[in-house]
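Q: Two folds, back to back.
A: First:
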Amino acid sequence: MNNHLTNRGVWVRINRYKGETVEGWLIGEIPQGLLIALDKDLKDLRLVSEYYSISYNHENKLSTLSIENATEVRDELQAISEAISVPMKNAISRTKFDKLHQFCHHSAELSWQIRQGEHEAFQGIDSEPRGELMGFLLAQVDRSTALHREVYETFEDCGLTAILDEFGRDLHVYQLNLQFRPMIWNSRLGKR
């Protein structure tokens, strides 16, 4: 990786080998190539992996992609990581994974039973009238709801839902920040 971190947010013109030119703001470099934003909202991104030249226009720069902004985002992410890591480790250690494995097994079995019932009704294999298929399907929906309720209760018992209640909004805010949008007020940390 070159000096692309110091040039983050700078308008670039990249000449590719097949004659194609890509222009936009440099987001950064990953092992697969350069990430380029084609719009100021950072919604239209391109990965440029093979190119022979790149030119920089330092007069046209997005401040939200500057190294200073990245440092601020890193510091805020570090703060939320420190706040969430111990409760998350404790919650994961209390998780009853056997309940989650049971859910996977029971939900796969339930899906198979529903498909089998629909298939038999469609093929006319089942001697019961097709109208009873609806009762069968409703019973399976009820079983499915109960399975999902058990998973939720498992997460609730170990404390994962409480962590999401406490940190969920902050994590969403950081997800937006990771997309290098302007910083959003974070009430939990009292920073911008």
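A: Second:
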Amino acid sequence: MNFFDYNNSFLGTEKLFVVQHTFFYVLSRFKTNQILPAITVFLVYFLGFYILSDYFKKIDTKKNVEFFCYLFFLIVVPFALVANNIRNILAVALIAVALYKDMFAKGNKLIIGLIYLIACLMHIGVVPFVLIRLFIIIINNFSLKRLAVWLLFFAIFCGGLLLFIRTSFGTYFFEKMVFYLTAGSNSQSNVNAWFIAADNSLVLKINKYISILFSLFLLFFLMKSSRGHLYGISKNVVLFFTFTVLLIVGLGLFFPGTTWYRFFYLIYFFSPIFIYYVSVDGNLFEKLFVVFMVVWLIFWQYYQITHQSIFESDFIWGILSPITFLFR
């Protein structure tokens, strides 16, 4: 089957996710089934390390603390999730690069827009991050002197939103949003079964509340430290993570299941940068909290690997096996 036949095999709006389909199609040409998780693992960790290395090049770092931040990234990103999740975590990794280039590094706007688009065409779950970024741009340009202009813009925006909802992509997006916010909307769905299992699991509940606490901790430290002269930590960065953390907290506390977790993925990619400043400038309590998080995250890595059925076989070696042919 050629790529065009493969892409056309999807129904309706699913055809729009051409990046996702291309990624799957190309990797399906290889003879090993484990090439997909292997490449995903490589790309996610590579993109995370790229963000950190590029950021640390721009500041005068303490090398031992910088090394700890790289290590923290390896600890905070669950290997089991990366190997098993594929689409969503890879899309979040791409969005993280776009946001870093956009808000921290002030990169080329055309390239940044292209990365945003690629990420959205990889998985629809990252669209809210783009909407938050657009909302911040609107806030930054708002002025009471231009109230009439903004009222007109608001009317056009509402009309555009209604038209967007009527498109196949808009309908698909809002259907997915309702589907996950209502635990699958169907008692027979796999999502509903997983949400019930997650809500009944003591360890998953503990991880949810610790993750929410960690998100709030980073946000409060970010707000406190942004008054200083931290490279790239602008008002836009603080605003973006304020809205993102509020989204994580709202979904985690008031909605069933693990929908909150999809947005927490983004914290993985930027938390080492914030942890750097905690390690350098934080007080004793803040540093002790980071130590607590390291201990919990090591346990969480162990728990996920030992409690996912896919890891009962030689799955990890299977992920590495596509690479071993390079050394034969």
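Q: And?
A: The radius of gyration is 21 Å.
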